[in-house]
Write a structure and sequence with these properties.
The chain is α/β, with parallel strands linked by helices and 260 residues long. It is 42% helix and 13% strand. The chain has a five-stranded parallel β-sheet. Strands 1-2-3 form a three-stranded parallel β-sheet. Helix 3 packs parallel to helix 4 and helix 8 packs across helix 9.
């Protein structure tokens, strides 16, 4: 039986795919990955993301300014983003958030752009795709103050208590390649025990490769074996995982149905 998956976070526009993007997209389709959410990271790639999503069936865009790109952003980039969101041809605002992992960072600038984009998402009634690396608690603080209509905590790697707080705020938790590593005890425990309706699948391709591709390029086709890992951890069938995670993705990103 053919099962279908939604990759809720895939940078198909990345330069790592320039040499074989057609083949990568075809392999994803062959693996049953029928929908790919392609988030922008800065104004400079808004157009590329749009073109990718027009060219490849099943790809849907999100637009945002990533916290690691705020250093080269300008005020007019926020205006350009709001123009994109006003046009309505996207499923979310993203990838946005905070990143406290990189040593040399402008935390205040990250926060300013994050808050501005949360306000846009709230005003446009759009969900958000959150980058939360070592920044879960400050992000939750802002989400309590600026109530958006939910979204996805991408590459979630927090505690169960933090997971529960995101769920209370209407968010799903994105699980991907990190979950496949035998030593990733916390993520694997979360994958096994979180409410099933709180989980969505993602690759973050070409980044965060699964255990069997450590150090290599990740691709959206790898979502299938990632899903198999989740099925094993939960003692469920692959078809059940496909149905549940796809339903979760549609619930939190309802515009997917209209953008594909």
């Amino acid at each position: 039986m053919q099962v279908c998956f939604i990759d809720t976070h895939c940078h198909l526009d990345a330069a790592a795919f320039d040499g074989d993007r057609d083949a990568v997209a075809a392999a994803a389709e062959d693996a049953g990955v029928t929908t790919l959410v392609v988030p922008a990271v800065e104004r400079a790639n808004f157009g590329v993301v749009t073109s990718i999503c027009r060219e490849y069936p099943g790809c849907v865009p999100a637009y945002g300014i990533h916290p690691l790109f705020v250093g080269r952003a300008r005020e007019e980039d926020l205006i350009a983003l709001d123009d994109r969101l006003r046009q309505g041809a996207c499923v979310a605002v993203g990838e946005i958030g905070l990143d406290n992992f990189v040593p040399e960072r402008d935390a205040a600038l990250q926060e300013r752009y994050f808050v501005a984009q949360l306000e846009m998402a709230r005003d446009r009634n759009l969900p958000v795709l959150l980058h939360v690396r070592r920044a879960i608690d400050p992000i939750l603080k802002h989400l309590r103050q600026i109530r958006v209509c939910g979204g996805i905590a991408h590459a979630f790697n927090g505690s169960r208590q933090q997971a529960d707080e995101f769920i209370k705020l209407g968010f799903k938790l994105g699980l991907g390649g990190a979950m496949t590593f035998d030593g990733a005890k916390r993520i694997r425990a979360l994958a096994a025990t979180l409410p099933l309706d709180s989980i969505v699948l993602e690759t973050d391709a070409p980044d965060i490769p699964p255990q069997w591709k450590a150090g290599q390029r990740n691709t959206p086709a790898d979502l299938l074996p990632i899903a198999e890992t989740l099925a094993q951890l939960r003692g469920m069938s692959l078809a059940e995982i496909a149905a549940a995670t796809s339903a979760n993705a549609f619930a939190v990103l309802p515009r997917i149905k209209f953008q594909r």
